[in-house]
Each structure stands twice: as C-alpha cells, then as structure tokens.
Design a protein that fits this description.
MALT1 protein
C-alpha cells in the first residue's frame, strides 16, 4: 500500500504590520498518523521552532521571515510544505490597517512622480499589506504591463514612449486596491521634456479622462477606474494622445 504523504492545504504568505497576530496553517493526509514540525528562516539562518508541532502555527509578527512545515509519518516518510514569506512592516501609519481588517489589500506605499532622461533606468515602487500577501500588477496609461508584476517596477533603459501615467493594483482573495496614479516623464538627453512636435496644418488630438472612485460619503467604486483604462486604450487606437487622471 502507498505510504505517500500528501499536503492538502499549504500555508500562505502574508504581509502584515508589526505586532499583528495570525496563524499559519498546514494540512496533510497519509496512511498513518502524521506529525508536524515548523521551521523558520531569517536571512541565511534556518532552524526548528521549539514546540511548534501542531498543524497551526500562531505568530505575532516581529520581523520578516520564511516558514515551512515538515510532515512525517510512522514509516519515516517526510515531506515539506511550500516556503512562505511573512513580510512584516515596521513603520505603518496610524490607523492602518483599518478596524475589522479582514486581510484585504491596504496600500502603505505609493509610487512617486519621476523625470528621467531617455536611456536611464526607471524604478517605481509600491507596497501593500494583505492576508494572503497581495499580488501586484502595474499599468501605464490604462494598459496592463505584462512583465511588471512585482512591488518594484524596473525599466533598465527607458525610451520616450515609456512616458505616461503609471499605477499599480494590489489584489488578493479578499479584493483589490489601487495605488495613486503618478506621471512619468522620459525626455531625450539634453532636450526639454515637453516638445511641440506638430507640423504646420496638423492638429493634435488630445483626450483628458478623469475617473473618480473615492467619495467622502460613499464606498470606493471600481468601475470608473476600469472605464478610464478601457477608454484610454480605445482612444489611443484612434490616434488620441490620452492623459488619464484618477481621483
């Protein structure tokens, strides 16, 4: 008969403020009774957590660490769960996370406006808390940037066409939240950032789109953001220079 151990529920990475209490969970099935042992790794130091022999590992967030759980049976078979990251934010503004936080993404770092010469690197950065840890997706002028799926957006050698309005969406199983939109200006070397590039007799078509989804006395709306993105894409195909603004 098979003595294989199958992990049926993997622990999940989280991104939380310092002092936050939560539980990492691991579940497994086997043909005999199973034993659990949790390990943690800080920088290059990996060690067994004394007394952490249950399926659930209660944690009070203190510092960013990696965790895994070893499951073994009476036949000396053993498997390890996925390594998961517990990211701990030491400096979080007062009032974050909000009361009754259920783990939905909360933006704690917004990107900032950048002016860069063409050919130079561009870095934009954001961060969000969430349980599970949020995934990230960057957009420029409402268009999804396929390769930009990390907290840091990095372009090694910028082009003038990289100019535009950038923002990032942080999402997990509880919902999604958007960073502020910021303008990035990529200029030709030794040239002013804004140039008049219209020929005599040629009229430039410029579209200004404004989407507002944060109202003082109404829950956040997501449709205006998506509408701006979709309209930006369509108008761009029609030859418009699109300026997208949010909130």
């Amino acid at each position: 008969f098979s003595t294989a151990i199958t992990i049926t529920e993997q622990p999940v990475s989280v991104s939380v403020p310092v002092g936050y209490s939560f539980v990492l969970r691991c579940r497994a099935q086997g043909c005999t009774s199973l034993q659990y042992q949790w390990f943690c790794q800080y920088q290059s130091d990996c060690h067994l957590i004394p007394g952490a022999t249950n399926q659930d590992l209660p944690i009070i967030a203190e510092q960013t660490q990696l965790y895994t759980c070893r499951v073994n049976d009476l036949h000396r078979n053993a498997v390890f769960s996925d390594w998961v990251k517990v990211e701990v934010h030491q400096c979080v503004a007062r009032g974050l996370p909000p009361q009754l936080w259920r783990g939905e993404p909360v933006i704690i770092l917004n990107p900032s406006e950048q002016r860069v010469e063409a050919g130079q690197p561009l870095q934009l950065q954001c961060a969000a808390m969430g349980v599970p840890a949020p995934s990230y997706q960057w957009y420029r002028n409402g268009n999804l940037l396929e390769q930009q799926k990390r907290k840091k957006l990095w372009i090694t050698h910028t082009k003038v066409s990289d100019s535009g309005t950038y923002l990032c969406c942080a999402s997990n199983s509880h919902g999604e939240h958007w960073t502020n939109a910021v303008d990035v200006h990529i200029g030709e070397q030794n040239q002013p950032t804004l140039l008049c590039c219209t020929s005599p007799g040629v009229t430039r078509k410029i579209a200004l789109l404004v989407g507002n989804n944060r109202y003082q006395h109404h829950p956040n709306l997501m449709a205006p953001v998506r509408d701006v993105f979709e309209l930006s894409r369509l108008l761009g195909h029609l030859g418009f220079q699109v300026v997208s603004l949010l909130d």
